[in-house]
DoxX family protein
Amino acid sequence: MKFISNLFWLFVAVLFIFSGLIKINDPVGTAIKLEEYFEVFSTDIAPFFKSFEPYSLFLSIFLSAAEIVLGVALLVRFKLKAVLWLLLVMIVFFTFLTFYSAYFNKVTDCGCFGDAIKLTPWESFTKDIILLVMIVVLLLTQKYLQPFMRASSGAIITIITAALSVVVGWYAYEHLPYIDFRSYKVGNNIPTLMKPSAPLRYKYIMAKDGQEEEFEEYPTDTTYTFKEMVAINPEAGPKITDFNVWNDTADFTQEVLTGKKLLIIVQSVAKAKQDNFDSINTLVKAAEAAGITPMVVTSSSAADFEAFRHEVNLAAPYYFGDGTVLKTIIRSNPGLVLLQDGTVKGKWHHNDTPDIEEVTELVSTDEE
């Protein structure tokens, strides 16, 4: 039993630290996922969940930091009993979320490991059940987990971990995620990711006499009833399926993915920060002069954006995109994305607006 207890101790500690680090790497993405849950719960359970939405970013950093801190505290066996009870409360909460998502098919990606590792709702729920069992076992076998350092040393490590976690999360919010796990990361070619990497293959689920059978070719036996068609190699499907840019008269998706483009992403004018538009406007003018076409993409209405662009003196043609896609492209509102023939050459938070020399150096690399 001692071996099992120590094995579970190490596994749970490392997994919580890993999960927290992945989430705190992208606090905006975690906040977006929390907003999804609050939206669903406010409709299905109680309207008061809607009141949590304005605090999504705070909760994102707090919960991510809590996972890291509790994982580290467990690892160094500091305040073991209290830490295990807190982990139990946290995993019960997460188990409820993942069960609700899986059973009612509400939030199809729990965001347990951010964009780094995608789990289906039932996979997430299974993972949480396993963790729940492990934590209960650890609570019952604490005698095998004796402290191996002084309490003061454990407290110092835990406090430093908490401070660093909050600083890391806040810095990622004020800039961009340290590691970009999304399909629009620097170096990726969007048109390539909009196509399958290999021909998709399917299997057919058919029913006959109350029994289901699978076929790789559609059966000629007409006594079978068709149930569904499932991809055998879904990983070969397009990684990007919803990238579109348009205006009131035409589709501009291919135009965006051709030549040198500087995209100014304004996800929503209602939430857009206006502090750094002087730098952005300077870059827009310099980019035009350097042969790089600036294009604004927003999910706001034309009327709202017209008022906004005059407020911030943004002199560039604007187009429309899906709000969810724009949030996926860049975790900054506004944010800047540099494309060359559909390849992402650079991404910047509005707090890190580059100068024209940095931009031209990036797009000229392939031409030399």
